[in-house]
Amino acid sequence: MSEDRGFVEELSDYEDDFDRWYVEVVRKAELADESPVRGTRVIRPYGFALWENMQAELDRRIKETGVQNAYFPLFIPQSMFAREAEHVEGFAPEVALVTRGGNRELEEPLVVRPTSEAIICPMYARWVQSYRDLPILINQWCSVVRWEERPRAFLRALEFLWQEGHTAHASLEEAEERSRLMLEVYRDFVETELAIPVVPGQKSESEKFAGALRTYTIEAMMGGKKWALQAGTSHNLGDHFGKVFDIEFLDAEGQRRFACNTSWGLSFRVIGATIMVHGDDRGLKLPPRVAPIQVVVVPIWRREAERDVVEEAVARVRDALTPVARVFVDRRDDKTPGWKFNEWELKGVPLRLEIGPRDVAKEQVVLVRRDTGEKQPVAMAELATVVPELLSEIQAGLFTAARRMLDDNTVPVTTYVELQQRAADNAGFSRAFWCGSEACEAQVKIETKATIRCIPFDQPGTTGRCIVCGGESDAQVIFARAY
Amino acid sequence: MSEDRGFVEELSDYEDDFDRWYVEVVRKAELADESPVRGTRVIRPYGFALWENMQAELDRRIKETGVQNAYFPLFIPQSMFAREAEHVEGFAPEVALVTRGGNRELEEPLVVRPTSEAIICPMYARWVQSYRDLPILINQWCSVVRWEERPRAFLRALEFLWQEGHTAHASLEEAEERSRLMLEVYRDFVETELAIPVVPGQKSESEKFAGALRTYTIEAMMGGKKWALQAGTSHNLGDHFGKVFDIEFLDAEGQRRFACNTSWGLSFRVIGATIMVHGDDRGLKLPPRVAPIQVVVVPIWRREAERDVVEEAVARVRDALTPVARVFVDRRDDKTPGWKFNEWELKGVPLRLEIGPRDVAKEQVVLVRRDTGEKQPVAMAELATVVPELLSEIQAGLFTAARRMLDDNTVPVTTYVELQQRAADNAGFSRAFWCGSEACEAQVKIETKATIRCIPFDQPGTTGRCIVCGGESDAQVIFARAY
């Protein structure tokens, strides 16, 4: 029966047409749907449940570092938004403006937050008088709006869901420590929960956050075209915002000083990363730790007489598994088992559990892994032990495969021709020395469309020659095309 | 030492100046702060932690009824918003409009959602073809914007946090059942978690949701002026939105029909209710089940030699209580114990735990209840048993006191003069027969400022005379002033 797969939702070829494959997977797996507002998406229950699981794991990690959640207003008065010069210059082209409210023209337009530094820092200025009021460690989960001309589900959206953390500190050292700590939280979250290996590093001056002193990033490699995706960023803002927004305090010696700030954000584009890193021709492969459904149970019977026998076993299986896994029983009676197999593979459920009358007679079920396709009979009595083990194996396997993809497609490059060729071939990350000049960086971007994704923390410890100008360089960078 | 309370944050008198008391408690207990945007507030970590606890409990209950979370866009095209006539008429005066984005005037302004029926129903129309696609049961947690001329923290805000559930059904009966079910979820949540008794009932035609067939509500009585607060509403929308937005489906007999919808919402105004129902002259009294901190530990020592002894005991106490309660140890060394006692009373922490050197010698601590002020020594070995018991007692005690306040101030009224007098005196809820005419309802509103809060489900089962016109009536209603 499992051979009869009935109607198959055809997906575009993963290798040959990755961009179309991505769009189709998002829609057919019911993660998100187009909305009547250009550039925005509706996040459907299956996609949102995935986000909720991610949120729970990241929120826990953030709180463990002493951060508390809060909520700041959606709207920012335009003049307040404009106070930090670099910040407004970077974001002004992307903002949405509310100009009418309550049937009146507003005296001052309100910016719909694209990020919240400009509304949070004035509050910190009010709350901080003495060094005893520091640090302030706050995070918020919310949606933000950035006018996006080339929207792409989860990756670039006019409105997106994220968390943004904002801290204030008595010293630059402490701010630096916090910005690095939060990058490490992101790295651990993305690698452990999403099974996506990343390259942590620092952004170049031209790629850093508008208004920041330094921006740190974790960069992941996507499947298909092997482009990079910036999966999370953490900014040491120095005292730029402290000075502009008057976050002033008396230190322990009674001296007036400005606070130093950090901000750090991770958005639902990591859903896009999860799709692109692990997916294949059949659709999604969700990492078990965040999958909304970890085990889907498909009862198989033909005659009514078999139904009761199977259903009784299904109830036992569900009761046995519920304490150890997120289980869903697919009881739809207008779909064949084969149709269901396809759908749950498309939706990336890590384990499928089949039970038919002959399985019941043998007190067993058949488990099928989404990652390897491997089938195995398992005694019902052992399910509660075997399933968690398999889920761990799958999680580890996804990470290993993604690590291999990243390693295999990250290559040290020493000539400019090679760099150009690799960018043209969508060949992955190119690791090369760079002298630090914006001119060299810009030339690569114009000529190859590859950008400096980051200056990795992990450096060879030797010096070299800039891949562009041949000048002296003490740091390698990652060049890659990026989403 | 506990007598020396140091600096006391003076609050306005709870009985004499309730409105000012409310504003001060919100600010001084650090629940929320004013923001630079008129009509909005910043929800500070202590207030937000309270909201997170409420969210967790309500979210769990909502999901238990089969509802899934999702996320729909913040913006609604103006023409789409305008499709349901009553709906737009009700909300148009309150909307905020985005007219510019990405440095351009928009061809069509976007409404910032005041509620999401008009963006969700078009999606349901896309997802529903057959009766097999029904019901759709979706909820979202988000912020919404309604231009508010008389803002008041948590109660009326230009932007507020809430959940809004939206369902679609194959029949009106099923929609009715769902709208009643969700009201019951709200009643259970508010009474069980927030210890606030409510009167469930139906709204009059003039008070129902713009576009609804019927609106159900739970109404609570606040302290102080004994005004009513609408704590949650659930709407049976009939097929009004189904027809306007074309949510059409083929039923089991192959006939084309329109889906029936419900929507239901509960906002962070229940934080306002929690403040106003349980508070007193000293500040907040938070119900233990949702209190961010259930037990605050205040170590008491004078000389350094005592400090180590006390700290060692504090560590043991914290370890013993952490598995059974949310515990916070207040180790600030620039505040006296008395100052801390005041602050935690203001912040409404249900239990205070004091430990000094003499307590340590006796292997005991002193527990002080926020609700009764009662002090009792408790052996350290018994803490993990006694604390959960006391928290349950406090939760039950708060509910009983609130129930008494509601019952004592809900009075059957048979003459119009009495109704007027009670409204003028802020005397609470008046229960009276009403003939159902909008004219009588409007007269009461104009002459007394009291409105019909609801037609309670719980009716005497007899008929009577309308309190206004003397006409025949088969239902009593609750008249009250409302926030």
Question: Largest inter-chain interface?
Answer: A-B, 57 and 57 residues
Which structural class do the helices and strands of chain A define?
A: alpha+beta
CATH class of the largest domain in chain A: Alpha Beta
Question: Into how many domains do the coordinates of chain A divide?
Answer: 3
β-strand number of chain A: 25
Question: N- to C-terminal separation of chain A?
Answer: 42 Å
Average pLDDT number of chain A: 96
Percentage of residues in DSSP E strands of chain A: 25-35%
Shape of chain A: globular
What are the segments of chain A in which pLDDT stays under 50 over at least 5 consecutive residues?
A: 1-8
Order the strands across the largest sheet of chain A as they lie in space: 3-7-8-14-11-10-9-22-25-21-20
Q: Report the sheet with the most strands of chain A, covering strand number, pairing sense and barrel closure.
A: 11 strands, mixed
- Look at the structure and name the CATH superfamily of the largest domain in chain A: Bira Bifunctional Protein, Domain 2
Computed Rg of chain A: 25 Å
Corresponding CATH architecture of the largest domain in chain A: 2-Layer Sandwich
Assembly category = homodimer
Task: Please give the share of residues in helix of chain A.
Answer: 25-40%
Helical segment tally of chain A?
14
CATH fold type of the largest domain in chain A: BirA Bifunctional Protein, domain 2
